[in-house]
Amino acid sequence: MERFALTMKLHKKVALTTVENCGYYIKKVLRAKGTIVKGYCHVVESGEKLVYYWVEDEDGKTHDVAFGIACVFTPEVKNLNFILSKETPNNLSSVQTDEKNDDMYKLYTEDPKKFWTNIKI
Description:
There is one protein chain. The protein is α+β, with helices and mostly antiparallel strands. It has one domain. The protein is 40% helix and 22% strand. The protein contains five helices and five strands, in the order H-H-E-E-E-H-E-E-H-H. It is globular and about 35 Å long. The two termini are 17 Å apart.
């Protein structure tokens, strides 16, 4: 993951949304053998809950693209403790979302051809 993130930084390829970065990762590293997953991230220290996106490969292994890229740009992020979950949190009203990611994920699920056409490396 670190190599991918450093390459993205070096070539200024970090996209505007996490979902796009997940798409780049699937295309470049997994050779189109992965899926973008929408779930939740619970930051242990702060209690903050976020809608979160990551990649699962064909073996079910999780690839946290957003965290990998964040660690390259902001190394102190490496110390965060968080839990990824596909389960909806109990207190959904306190969950933070990002409209751009939501829109890109909707495109990924509803019009995959258009989504993948827009993901260029």
